[in-house]
Amino acid sequence: MDVSTPGGPLDPSEVVRRIESLCQLPGGPDPETRAYLAAGAVVDALILPALEREGRDAIRLLVDARHSSPLLDLALVVTCDRARINTFTVFPYEEIVEGVISYLCGGRVAEDDWAWNIAWGLSGLSDEEHWRLVMEVIRRCPWDDDALWMIGDGPIGELQMQRDGMRRIDELAREDPKLARILRLVQEIP
Description:
Layout: H1 12-23, H2 31-54, H3 60-64, H4 70-83, H5 93-105, H6 109-120, H7 127-140, H8 145-160, H9 165-175, H10 177-188
């Protein structure tokens, strides 16, 4: 599959087509991981070179078309992460929080995988913006052990690896019973 850089503006449907083509290659990991890897290959081959040539205008059409395809959304998340573009300039904060809750509790895994990747820290957010996002997701998430465990295993685990992350999480958990429950669930359920 050729994913070389085309000339001219990036066409959202072409980006999606190329990701879909890479996802169809035989072998490899589970479908979510394949989609992430395929999106990464297309970002590296098409989107990042276009950003270097044309600046943020290169992704304007992609941003305008967000939510037209879960794969396009994933490519935008990967672009933000690799190009260090603040994710909040592509996806509004409220949209991300709602997408994460929908991913965790609403059965929209395929449609909202992009938001879950942002919550994991695969984004162009600063450490403080990432903390704020994860704490808001916890605040809004229902008391569902499966969803809370996923937050603990994913985004909280990532935050704990930041400088002073473990200390900060432990301090917050003393005041927040839902966060304390998340930490217990991660210890109890492998």
